[in-house]
Amino acid sequence: MSNHANSIDFPELGQAIQDAREKQRITREELAEEPGISARHLQSIEKEGQNPSFPLFIQLVTMFHISVDQYRHPDRKNHLAPAVGCASQHF
Question: For residue 71, which of 7, 18, 11, 8 has the smallest C-alpha distance?
């Protein structure tokens, strides 16, 4: 398996986290309080594509119901779109 298949597009994922946070009208400072990180660290995840720790990664994608598949396999994004849409209807 190639390295590409095992990687996650963290800059795109960070943007998705920021978009979801802003859609819910949560400030960066408010969100950073939940996992006990600094607002600057959250900014580096959202804006600079910094890789978060695994526990923080899980907490953020779970909190905002973000499907990781589209960031892990961007070349298959169109194939996953219907499944992602179906899954989000349960929330």
Answer: 8
Instruction: Tell me how far apart the 2 most distant CA atoms of the chain are, in Å.
Output: 40
pLDDT digits (tens, 9 = 90+) for 6-31: 588 899 999 999 999 999 999 999 99
Q: For position 69, what pLDDT does the model report?
A: 82
The CA distance from 87 to 19, in Å, is 19
Rounded distance between C-alpha atoms, residue 79 and residue 28, angstroms: 32
Contacts of 26 (CB under 8 A, 6+ apart): none
